[in-house]
Design a protein that fits this description.
It holds the Pfam family HisKA_7TM. The chain is about 75% helix and about 0% strand. By secondary structure, the chain is mainly α. The chain has one domain: Rhodopsin 7-helix transmembrane proteins (Rhopdopsin 7-helix transmembrane proteins, Up-down Bundle).
């Protein structure tokens, strides 16, 4: 297996690993659903799981049409992840209050709903992308020709992850819960950059953005577990030791 074949396999395997780790993360999130931003974390976690799961599913079928369907659902997961991330950041006890919070929530929810609806129905209007008839069957991931909607969608995702990273960055600057706000700010920023770079240079193909977003869910899980470390299953304890 050469490098060009190994990279898609590695990306898909990493995405599946993110999905598999969602179960203990979700169980922890449900336990904390009544505290601070537990529900926002659940939305974020579900979005990241769908984003990674359908991203990896593209390698399962060689037909461009099937890959395009999985790519559309992965887009839905990406929007849910971005929405959940902004809610998570803006409801965290360590971050500053988001100005005009209710108005921002309404606008973001409206745009997210419209984005999801248009992305899922893209085959009917092709406002987001088209799958060329000459797409190579050997390609592991979807090959698309981006349209205007694709770039608007990309800008929306970058704005969501960027805004959340800024909120945690402000908390980091104010030295509020430095250990976790620093991690959130850095990984959130890297996720936003990865989304933009992947959209520009690898439109519709390989991307590390879903995997990096999985790093944000890991930080949240470790933070939630800080008071329950002794009850952690042994396979997961090394993750806490690594991130502390």
């Amino acid at each position: 297996m050469n490098v060009s074949q190994l990279v898609p396999v590695a990306l898909a395997a990493g995405a599946l690993l993110v999905v598999l780790t969602s179960y203990p993360y979700l169980a922890t999130a449900i336990a904390y659903r009544d505290r601070d931003n537990g529900l926002a974390y659940i939305v974020f976690l579900m979005g990241v799981a769908v984003w990674n799961g359908l991203f990896a599913a593209q390698v399962m079928d060689p037909r461009p049409m099937v890959k395009g369907f999985f790519f559309s659902i992965a887009t839905l997961g990406a929007v849910l992840a971005g929405l959940g991330w902004l809610l998570f950041a803006s409801t965290a006890s360590s971050t500053p209050l988001l100005p005009y919070r209710r108005t921002v929530y309404r606008v973001v929810a409206l745009v997210a709903g419209l984005d999801i609806a248009l992305a899922i129905t893209n085959p009917a209007h092709a406002l987001y992308w088209t799958v060329p008839d000459s797409s190579p069957v050997s390609s592991a991931f979807t090959v698309i020709e981006p349209a205007v909607g694709y770039w608007v969608h990309t800008a929306f995702l970058v704005a969501l992850f960027g805004a959340g990273a800024v909120l945690f960055g402000l908390a980091w600057r104010n030295e509020t819960d430095v250990r976790y706000t620093a991690g959130y700010a850095v990984v959130g920023s890297v996720t936003a950059v990865a989304i933009l770079v992947s959209a520009v240079f690898l439109a519709g193909t390989a991307s590390i953005a879903p995997l990096i977003a999985g790093g944000l869910t890991t930080i949240g899980w470790v933070q939630a577990q800080q008071k329950r470390y002794l009850t952690l299953p042994r396979p997961y304890r090394w993750v806490v030791d690594l991130l502390h």
